[in-house]
Write a structure and sequence with these properties.
mainly alpha, 71% helix
Length: 87
């Protein structure tokens, strides 16, 4: 699977991560998909390293999706810790 596949999966994973971790994000609806894309890329790498899933055949593997969601949740949590909304 190429970079376009990881970006598409990242957009979907960003929506899933936002649903699992609701709340106000300082960046709004533009930053959250970008975090999802970065989380999808991170998850793809984690899926390859931890689970041994080949990045070409791994798009439909559940382990890749779980790793991508976990990667997006980690990045979304870190983003919320670093960038807090102004009151």
């Amino acid at each position: 699977m190429g970079i376009i596949g990881w970006i598409l999966m990242g957009l979907i994973v960003g929506v899933i991560a936002k649903a699992l971790m609701p709340g106000r994000d300082p960046g709004g609806c533009i930053v959250t998909p970008l975090i999802g894309i970065a989380g999808g890329l991170l998850g793809g790498w984690l899926g390859k390293v931890i689970f041994g899933v080949d990045s070409v055949d791994g798009f439909f593997e559940i382990s890749t999706w779980v790793a991508a969601i976990v990667g997006a949740l980690i990045l979304l949590g870190l983003y919320r810790l670093v960038v807090r909304p102004k009151h």
